[in-house]
Amino acid sequence: MIVLRRFRVLIVMVFLVACTLHIVIDLLPRLEKRAVAAGAPANPAAGSGCSCAHRPSDEPQNWGKQRTRTGSAQPGWPSKHTLRILQDFSNEPGSNLTSQSLEKSPGSADKTEAFRRLEDFAQSGGHLVGDKQFIQDASPKRERNGGPSKLGALFQHPLYRIPIPRLSEDDTLFNMNTDLRFNPKAAENQEWPNEGTDEEEYTPTGEPSADSYPNWLKFHIGINRYELYSRDSIVIESLLKDLVLQKIVSVAMKSGGTQLKLIMTFQNYGQALFKPMKQTREQETPPDFFYFSDFERHNAEIAAFHLDRILDFRRVPPVAGRLVNMTKEIRDVTRDKKLWRTFFISPANNICFYGECSYYCSTEHALCGKPDQIEGSLAAFLPDLALAKRKTWRNPWRRSYHKRKKAEWEVDPDYCEEVKQTPPYDSGTRLLDIMDMTIFDFLMGNMDRHHYETFEKFGNETFIIHLDNGRGFGKYSHDETSILVPLSQCCRIRKSTHLRLQLLAKEEFKLSDLLEESLLQDRLSPILYRPHLEAMDRRLRIILRVLNDCIEKDGYSNVVENDLDRDIADTITSKR
């Protein structure tokens, strides 16, 4: 009995020592910061307020010493922040389930937070839909600077001027009279960046006008049943600039997925998904890599947005490249302890970090700056899941994600006939949307399309959102024809898509030239290695050959679905 009692006492003592060590380790950064603050020089030029350039040699070797946060009332680590519910870029979402956020299931508190961010939103003028006004086309038509260009001529072609159907309340993601209200003054931030004139503009009702809304909010309001954004929307151009220039005020790691991604919050309350640079432009995916272990490339995300717009799909959220200061814009503003603790200085005196994820998050695969600058892509977030739910669908042509097993579609040549009898592919436009996505992926060489998402409000009669394109543009020397299996098995395509592909195969509107010109607008240009651009022209010819084989086998009317009005079709035919 005495031995048993002593053993119990020993266990309790070990437990108490472990708890004490845990508390000391947790409080160490705060204590060190107070010590640094107490010993700071009186000269502001020599203290933490110095505005000089940030060099790695100036950084303390002990990463526990954080910079003094000016204007912060809380010493040490701030309290946990509440993030807006995020779009799901997870690599393993549930099949046919509503997308999940960082918090596994958004509760009433999350919805309250989401609506608080959009409170006091005013009804605005712009695009008339019935008796209501929408912001989608409130801005004038975009004027292109400089002389004539292939890209400008393309967007003036009749195929790129086809109007979408007239919008009703059911066709817009938000009803601005009831769903959305936003007032920057209610956000308790006196540093609200004015994006218009020096004084905020107000409607006659005394509420902020449409021009005073942040660009990310204008983008969300413009989403409808048929497109993420309109062809002539200047909001997208402004939003791309915001992704590059807006001050980053908070950073956290994105949960889920196999590789490191960061959630960045801007001063105007917008958020974006940051994918850091992992490969140089000219590097190809190693031949021994499986598609599910390939790197996610930041330049692929940027190029995918521009390619999607050239194909006139407009189903990829805006993406822009940005050069980020890893110290000032990530480490110093993050509230994520797990991320903060992975920062270190390399033997080459560069700032590095690796975060936490399934693949490539270790010291051996650390992301290092030069010396503290790193490239990355920033993808604008879609609307909050508490405000606009999205449904996640399993791709019928999903790969096995196994080293030896094959998926059913890889061994059954008649697999598409089974898909055609399964909702939602048995009616509506969903199967045609899959064909569009197949063409999009084949041009990029993207084999990682296991799931896709749609906006729940629009049911099955809406477009597929082309999310998560980071595994595209991995190989320019190889064309993965298995990506085209859905097209070759089903032999179905929209007439508008078919005509655009034929147009982009002409020398006048050569796809590689158009994409190269479009990518020049990005701050990180050049985005793609030239062989990747040339590979797209080659793949486009392969797509057209597959479609010609389908037409010869089944007939034009059985392959090409006419989605154009007769008058529009006649106009386009006469222009060709």
Automatic annotation (TrEMBL):
Its cofactor is Mn(2+). The chain crosses the membrane at residues 7-25. It is found in: Golgi apparatus. The active site is at D448. Residues 44-110, 186-209 are annotated as: Disordered. ATP binds at Q259, K275, E296, A379, A380, F381, L382, E453, D468. Mn(2+) binds at E296, D468. One of its GO terms (cellular component) is Golgi apparatus. Keywords: ATP-binding, Disulfide bond, Glycoprotein, Golgi apparatus, Kinase, Manganese, Membrane, Metal-binding, Nucleotide-binding, Transferase, Transmembrane, Transmembrane helix. Residues 59-73, 88-103 have a biased composition (Polar residues). Belongs to the FAM20 family. This is FA20C kinase. The gene is Fam20c_1.
